[in-house]
Amino acid sequence: STIFRARTRMLDIKNFRGKYKDFLCRVCRKENETQEHVLQECTTIHRDLRSTVNTQDLFDDSATKEKLQQTARKLKAIIKTLKESGAPPPNGEGSDLPMQANHSTID
Question: pLDDT, tens digit, for every residue of 44-76?
Fold first, then answer.
């Protein structure tokens, strides 16, 4: 589930396991893209504070089904915003970086 991935820090965030070379937020391009930044701090993603997801939202054991569904909807909207930001793929795949020449020969 989306909430489980957020709880275990498995969302596709740039500072996750060295997947990306560039750590600037894909949306605002001002701060490092951390889970805290994209879920709570990025003012480009969160123009309205009601769209933020804080730690209490993720780990509230007494949350109702409706509250969990609301949190999941917020997370999915944030993830969608990140994906639609137009950032290059991780590790430069498909970027305009020059390809390394292959100097092997075939005998």
Answer: 999 988 999 999 999 998 999 999 999 999 999
- Enter the pTM of the model: 0.75
- Side-chain half-sphere exposure of 20, counting CA atoms within 13 A: 16
* Distance (Å, whole) CA 33 – CA 48: 19
Q: How far is CA 26 from CA 3, 29, 44, 66, 107, in A?
A: 21, 6, 10, 30, 46
What are the tokens at 38? 């994209």
Which tokens go with 88?
Answer: 């290059």
Tokens describing residue 93 = 């795949």
Residues 76 and 54 sit within 8 Å (Cβ to Cβ): no
Percentage of the chain exceeding pLDDT 70: 77
